[in-house]
Amino acid sequence: xxxxxxxxxxxxxxxxxxxxxxxxxxxxxxxxxxxxxxxxxxxxxxxxxxxxxxxxxxxxxxxxxxxxxxxxxxxxxxxxxxxxxxxxxxxxxxxxxxxxxxxxxxxxxxxxxxxxxxxxxxxxxxxxxxxxxxxxxxxxxxxxxxxxxxxxxxxxxxxxxxxxxxxxxxxxxxxxxxxxxxxxxxxxxxxxxxxxxxxxxxxxxxxxxxxxxxxxxxxxxxxxxxxxxxxxxxxxxxxxxxxxxxxxxxxxxxxxxxxxxxxxxxxxxxxxxxxxxxxxxxxxxxxxxxxxxxxxxxxxxxxxxxxxxxxxxxxxxxxxxxxxxxxxxxxxxxxxxxxxxxxxxxxxxxxxxxxxxxxxxxxxxxxxxxxxxxxxxxxxxxxxxxxxxxxxxxxxxxxxxxxxxxxxxxxxxxxxxxxxxxxxxxxxxxxxxxxxxxxxxxxxxxxxxxxxxxxxxxxxxxxxxxxxxxxxxxxxxxxxxxxxxxxxxxxxxxxxxxxxxxxxxxxxxxxxxxxxxxxxxxxxxxxxxxxxxxxxxxxxxxxxxxxxxxxxxxxxxxxxxxxxxxxxxxxxxxxxxxxxxxxxxxxxxxxxxxxxxxxxxxxxxxxxxxxxxxxxxxxxxxxxxxxxxxxxxxxxxxxxxxxxxxxxxxxxxxxxxxxxxxxxxxxxxxxxxxxxxxxxxxxx
Length: 684
What we know:
Elements: H1 3-16, E1 43-44, E2 50-52, H2 54-65, H3 67-74, H4 76-79, H5 94-108, H6 112-127, H7 140-145, H8 161-177, H9 182-196, H10 207-211, H11 213-227, H12 230-242, H13 246-252, H14 254-261, H15 273-279, H16 282-290, H17 294-310, E3 331-333, H18 334-351, H19 354-366, E4 379-380, E5 382-384, E6 409-410, H20 417-421, H21 424-431, E7 434-437, E8 441-444, E9 450-456, E10 461-469, E11 476-483, E12 487-495, E13 501-506, E14 509-515, E15 518-526, E16 531-535, E17 540-545, E18 549-554, E19 557-561, E20 564-572, E21 576-584, E22 589-592, H22 593-597, H23 599-602, E23 604-607, E24 624-632, E25 663-669, E26 682-683
Parallel strand pairs: 8-12, 22-26
Antiparallel strand pairs: 1-7, 2-9, 3-5, 4-6, 6-21, 7-8, 9-10, 10-11, 11-16, 12-15, 13-14, 13-16, 17-18, 18-19, 19-25, 20-21, 22-24, 23-24, 24-25
Helix pairs in contact: 3-5, 5-6, 5-8, 5-21, 8-11, 9-12, 11-12, 11-16, 13-17, 15-18, 16-17, 18-19, 18-21
């Protein structure tokens, strides 16, 4: 039967078989007090308000030319008979995952062809909502019985989880276009959910929806902030009551300790790194709905514990796939990085807490770029902090052992969720560089080259701010104002915690100096072509990580041993082409103790090339290097394809055999490496 005709019959059948009772009662659920709903400290800007420039624009263009713009052409699961276009193919998470990055990419680049491509899926979804409010690919019951999913046969529907991702897609699309179809569509669906969640709870089909319920809550509460429909808060409370209790787990500390101690098959979904990345936003969703600040403390406690027990130098927690401690030999799934980034972007807006801005930049500029190839067509399922080779093997991962494809760089290597989901990392970071601030102002809370256009001040005057910088490699950020007339509005800037003291210049004259770790407000009248400069001196520091290892830092970047790379192409019958990468030269160096004591004296920073508009995150383009000396540890060798961290005493000093000779070594930004040492043992 023709797809359009089938769907028409389904819509009619919904009424004739009484699937949508006119007086369907809402389940009692947990009532929410609308007076306690908390407005975000910073308001997300519409998609497209921020336009990436410089190296960030080039990164997005690479993605557009690669899998981000063409996944539906090169990946059969999305390409063939797609369920989100009415077919019998993928009706699960991977198509919405891809759209969750491809939609913002299309509008960030204002790419007509990509917009047209993603609109096929958006239009089909919007145009094929069932009368009950249910949406998504046609179910088995609908195909076989020609009866649409409604309230009375909700159990014949499909899992809640993939719809949560599509709701995020539609939310972004609406902020870019104001398409009048979106809000009524969401309202109908959320009312449907409220009616059927008692009989078909989040966990009816899989535990994925239960573990990720905060994604559903987020969009429902976003819609409430627009239309003030009280039933949306009732729904959000009901969803939270059925979902994983991330807020309690983060706040009560035993969960993160148990995750460090247990690596068996019991409750592994609570340790699953991607679930954790999404779950980070759960406390702020509860806080937004209830106004109870205890949830903010839960998040602060949990995030701190998470990074203490499972954190790695590049700013992300271990997740291979489960939380797996803080040893530098542990891996992190690419999906965990991009989901944690998005959670932090939401957390930043609601809380305004600089702690999470620092975390977002560290994660983005270090962990994210190293896990894909230059053309963005291949990815690593798991990256390793001290990664001295990329190859097939067992490694020290919690899952899975037998496939031996989780560390290589391939399009389909490991699980393909990351192939579909990796695209949201850079795109959502770019769209969240700026937020709307109180007093019709703007806030620059993370930094990269871009321009932002918004209506500011008392009269909502259009203003464009050009942000010109080579950050995170360069320590200066230049803001140039463009407006038709002078306008007064507050401009907020983040002074990173790693910066001892920042200097702000206006039109060449010093305006003020400020200590790091805060948000400052410049509330004044601005003129066309005003030039504001933020100077953020980047001191060199070292930090302590798992097994008493040390990492070299400068500004938001961590630096790793530069190892020349030898790439080899391979092929797997099931998972296709892939790349292995091996180091040229020795990697088993320790840092002399004198460097830890006086890093500024013994670590020399050099700018070796400018950050151009064609910058790529690789060794050839690394703009900054740090030179120092190291000593080789002859007994530090590979074991099961990883480099187990050498044992130290409580003072952090390695007591084994160390070569007397100091050798000159070069460090480069972690994000530019594929093989490296970033967590160094310390030697005398």
